[in-house]
Specification:
single chain, 255 residues, 6-stranded antiparallel β-sheet, 17% strand
């Protein structure tokens, strides 16, 4: 995507010195602790109507997925307590960096550490907020070998979470997320920059490369006008949703 930046061609010496300068986080730390499965937020606590949060119910035509009309995805995930940004980086020092430098440093910092670092423009984040407010769910095929596995996603900003569709079918709201992403908006106003940190909860389920592709692809379906029509159809006109349209959008064969 044009507005997502993931820079991987930095010199090791420069990247190391900038990381030491800006980042507070220990190299082995992880902002997510995979101790709890995702479960439904308390509707009373958050003032939400659980019926409005239900995943679109008519999946009977989806013989591939085997959903029934009463299927639900978690109306919200129990947060896995992502680290606040000021515990990861020195915000005072970061304020003095240009948006381009900050994006490069952020991306480089997460390379090879079991995390994914991306950035996006504040305008795109606001569009993501708008579109995900009533279209939170989607399904994305992740190609592996000669076939694909289907991932199920939920956007509940500032978080985005992914689990395997088969795990959700087997465990429902007790299924654990494979991969989570947090969006940090501290520099949205001053630098027109939103920092995105993805954390692989189960490295046995996803590689770094797969997680990065999954996050970028999921964002593309919300931020691209043509692709977003499929997200809308999935959430609002489920009877008309065809998974093969997602495959076609990603140039994947309909197996």
């Amino acid at each position: 995507m044009q507005n997502l930046t993931s820079r991987i061609t930095r010199t090791a010496k420069a990247s190391s010195s900038l990381r030491d300068f800006l980042f507070n986080e220990a190299p082995s730390s992880s902002s997510w602790l995979p101790k709890r499965s995702f479960s439904v937020f308390s509707s009373r606590q958050h003032g939400q109507n659980p019926q409005k949060e239900a995943i679109p119910g008519d999946f009977l035509k989806w013989g591939l997925f085997g959903f029934c009309r009463t299927s639900r995805f978690a109306s919200g995930f129990t947060p896995l307590q992502p680290k606040p940004l000021d515990s990861i980086m020195d915000l005072d020092r970061a304020k003095n960096r240009s948006p381009e430098d900050l994006a490069s440093i952020w991306d480089d910092y997460h390379l090879g550490r079991g995390h994914i670092g991306l950035t996006m423009k504040a305008k795109l984040y606001r569009l993501l907020e708008q579109r995900s407010s009533d279209c939170r769910y989607f399904v994305i095929p992740l190609w592996r070998g000669s076939g694909y596995t289907t991932m199920f996603s939920q956007v509940q900003l500032p978080h985005m979470l992914f689990t395997g569709l088969e795990d959700y079918k087997a465990r429902g709201t007790q299924a654990a997320p494979y991969f989570t992403a947090s969006f940090y908006t501290e520099f949205a106003e001053s630098k027109d920059l939103v920092l995105i940190r993805g954390d692989i909860v189960f490295t046995s389920k996803l590689s770094d490369e797969e997680a990065k592709w999954l996050l970028e692809t999921a964002l593309s379906f919300y931020l691209n006008d043509v692709r977003y029509k499929l997200v809308e159809r999935f959430n609002k006109e489920t009877r008309d949703f065809e998974f093969k349209d997602v495959l076609r959008a990603l140039d994947m064969p309909d197996l």
